[in-house]
Amino acid sequence: MARPTIALLTDFGAHDHYAGTLKGVLLSLCPEATLVDITHDIPPHDVLTAAIALAACYRYFPAGTIFLVVVDPGVGSGRRGLVADTGDYRFVAPDNGVLSLVFHDSPPRKVVDLTERRYARPTVSKTFEGRDRFAPAAGWLAKGIELSAMGRPVSQWHVLQVPEPEVSEQRLTGQVLLVDRFGNLVTNIDRKRFEQFRQDGGIQIAIDGRVVEQLVATYAEAPTDAVCALFGSTDHLEVALNGGNAAQSLGLGRGAQVRIDRS
Fold this sequence. Notes:
By secondary structure, this protein is α+β, with helices and mostly antiparallel strands. The chain has helices at 18-29, 47-57, 100-105, 129-143, 191-198, 246-250; strands at residues 5-10, 34-39, 66-70, 81-85, 90-94, 110-113, 166-167, 171-179, 185-190, 203-207, 210-212, 214-215, 227-231, 236-241, 257-262. The chain folds into two domains: 5-150, S-adenosyl-l-methionine hydroxide adenosyltransferase, N-terminal (Rossmann fold), CATH 3.40.50; 166-262, Elongation Factor Tu (Ef-tu), domain 3 (Beta Barrel), CATH 2.40.30.
């Protein structure tokens, strides 16, 4: 039997003990598990960035992977914990919308409210449910416990309101959703929507009113320190600076408007 894989995504960073503590709980329950860090550098409390990161990577993991997602600004409140099964993958996370984009791509077959206390630690901290509720649930899943044993089925959950591009006859308008480590400004405009709008005609791209001169296939196609636009690894339009940080250079971040006009 293959060793179970548990992938972790949190906003805990590396400065404190939090991410390491999750791993300790997981290995105490399932010593044979393979633990993979997706990232622990999600900006604190940033559920949307976590949802985007999870949706960008989960399909590249082997079938059967369990995803433990702890970005939880509502820790200790009445918000639910969820355990979900999409067929190929299982997820343990707070019910705050962090699974919204995954569920959009891969509608879940079953979702339960994580309420069964036998699969939590004896005492649950109001400030560290990742350690006391979510990590134990992921560990028990890795040991073979059925998802249905962990709580009652639910048919509704919190869904993030992710901004969608707006399309008119002459303009496609989107916005920056994410600034990555390299300072690339990643938008909500995907390649399919872009191509449908362009239809082989001429277009002009602008961000926050500044015209982006080049649409390229790779960063290296643009001159050094030149602002360009391209489709990144998730097939979403991004504004970048070859060899530099577009977000810092332009002074822009999430919410910056991107306009594509027919020329």
